[in-house]
Amino acid sequence: MSRDFDVLIVGAGAVGSVMAALLLARKQASPGRVAIIAERAGLAAGAAAAHAQAGVGAEDWDLRVFALSRASQRLLQSCGAWQLLPPERVFAYERMVVWDAGGAAHGAGSLTFDCAEIGEPNLGFIVDGRALNEACRRAAALAGAVGIEASVRSVALGSTFARIGLADGRELDGKLLIAADGAASKTRELLGIETAGHAYHQDALVAHVRTAEPHGASAWQRFLPAGPLAFLPLPDGRSSIVWSVGRAEAQRLRALDATGFAAALRSASAAVLGDVELTTRVASYPLHLQYALDYARPRAVLLGDAAHTIHPLAGQGLNLGFLDCASLAEELGEARDPDLLGDYRLLRRYERRRKSENLLAATALDGLERLFAAPDPIAGPLRRYGLEAVGKLPFIKRRLAERALGLAGDVPAFLTGDRAWPRR
């Protein structure tokens, strides 16, 4: 038994759900003609259940939080997801302080970005990961996406269709297949698209902590030889930490009791926020750089982590995935007929735009990771001098802040204030 759609999206995470909601909000696809396929329960309960899911409950913030850029905020607003985020799960931060292990947070070897310096109300938003995923799924369901809970077994591409076979024997046909099923994408593998990259042999430790000193609506990041340590501000005064360390050290730190972990964290942060109290468990996930050698096939395309994963030191991974969605929607705006949604010419234009931008970000962050991990006698003074030099060059500093906000670079017109749609 087969079923026909215009767009098939594999993956019900934030990126896949936003892509569905965006296509429907922009009327580039009709309600009921976009399917989101995921192995776990996502949209399968439909819009009625989505209406009932008004929030995320009284439990604590998710251990995974995301720093969303201005471009991501505008994208989520345009597809209806931002409005569904519980206000208590979103926190605007105003400053970011970056410093080298050999320097001081407000002295030599440091760099501070302040929203007031670039005329912005904030530098972005810290958002609860669980709440974000739920809001994106609800936006897609309310817009008319069809949720299908199943695993993908096969993929076949024709000149006018993309077909996926499900493990339960069903087949789904569409004009366009979008793979948004994460770094270990099964769909990418079935499409025969290879990847390159390398492991960092690091784990990122995540937890929420309370500090003696207030975070001041600021994000704090210290570059250590083993990897960066970031404190991301939460609305209740706590901070969410992301601490990248070698795998053996991560195991040692996770084995410590709460007091021991807090003491290690205080030392690693140079006590920038004073004493630290652990308020949640400590979780971890491995870090690696990976990028797909191709983003597109006739009638098929990759988005988000299925196309690229980068080091989290700048918090740009999900923002890049959301920009993938915006760029693909902008290119597909040229299609005047559903049959043209999988036009390889349009998909290749998307590929050229996003592959260059994503590789630039991946290369830059990989270079930063290597620079700050380099031996201190030579690299240390260069790092501190570089941070100080950027701080003394307002134009360069502003451009870096604007790029982090998604206000510079190859950004789709509808995210920059120019409401023209589609792009000409």
Structural features:
424 residues; 11 helices; alpha/beta; FAD/NAD(P)-binding domain; 6-stranded mixed β-sheet; 33% helix; globular; 22 strands
Can you walk me through this structure?
This protein is an alpha/beta fold and 424 residues long. The protein has a single domain (2-196, 289-415), classed as FAD/NAD(P)-binding domain (3-Layer(bba) Sandwich). 33% of the residues lie in helices and 28% in strands. It is built from 11 helices and 22 strands. The chain has helices at 14-25, 46-52, 70-78, 129-143, 186-190, 247-255, 258-268, 317-332, 344-373, 376-391, 394-404, and strands at 2-4, 7-10, 34-38, 65-68, 90-93, 95-100, 110-114, 124-128, 146-149, 152-157, 162-166, 171-174, 176-179, 195-211, 218-224, 227-233, 239-246, 276-278, 283-292, 296-297, 300-302, 308-309. Strands 6, 7, 14, 15, 16, 17, 18, 19 and 22 form a 9-stranded mixed beta sheet that branches. Helix 1 packs parallel to helix 8 (317-332) and helix 8 (317-332) packs antiparallel against helix 9 (344-373). The two termini are 40 Å apart. Residues 41-58 and 418-424 have low confidence and may be disordered.
Category from helices, strands and their pairing: alpha/beta
The backbone outline, from C-alpha atoms, is: globular
Helix fraction, binned, reads: 25-40%
Average pLDDT, rounded to a whole number, is 85
How can the largest sheet be summarized? 9 strands, mixed
Text of the CATH class: Alpha Beta
CATH architecture: 3-Layer(bba) Sandwich
Radius of gyration: 22 Å
Based on the structure, what is the oligomeric state of the protein chains?
A: single chain
Strand content: 25-35%
Number of domains: 1
| Poorly predicted runs | 41-58, 418-424
Under CATH, the topology can be stated as FAD/NAD(P)-binding domain
CATH superfamily: FAD/NAD(P)-binding domain
Number of strands: 22
Q: End-to-end span in angstroms?
A: 40 Å
User: Helix count, per DSSP?
Assistant: 11
